[in-house]
Amino acid sequence: MSDDVRDVELRIGEIAVHGVEVERPDLLGPAFEAAFSRLLHERGVPASWSTGELTAPDRTLTMDRFGPTTSAEALAERLARTVYEGLR
Question: What confidence tens digit (pLDDT) does each residue in 2-56 have?
Fold first, then answer.
């Protein structure tokens, strides 16, 4: 990661999770925010974001299925990677 530090504010209107029951769903939002922040710190802000004109993907972002029940933290990690890759 370079020494170039930038503030990033990303607003996600909704994350819809279907087909899996999340243990402690109240933790999903904070866990996603922490996981996504960690990705930005580790991988950096994608160059395509430098225009300041980031828009929503033109498709639904999907990921592989989980079992019928999962923890908020495990789901948040996969969601964060899916969103990060989808916005690149």
Answer: 455 567 677 777 777 777 888 888 899 899 999 999 998 899 887 767 666 666 6
Instruction: Write out the DSSP string of 16-59.
Output: ---S-EEESGGGHHHHHHHHHHHHHHHH---GGGGGS-----SS
Q: Which residue has the tokens 């530090």?
A: 5
Contact 77, 30 (CB under 8 A): no
Return the closest-CA partner of residue 57 out of 9, 5, 13, 7: 13
Using CA atoms, how far residue 62 sits from 22, 40, 79, 86, in Å, is 17, 20, 9, 9
pTM of the model: 0.74
Q: Tokens 């996600």 correspond to what residue? A: 12
Can you give the pLDDT at residue 19? 77
59 contacts: CB under 8 Å, gap ≥ 6 = none
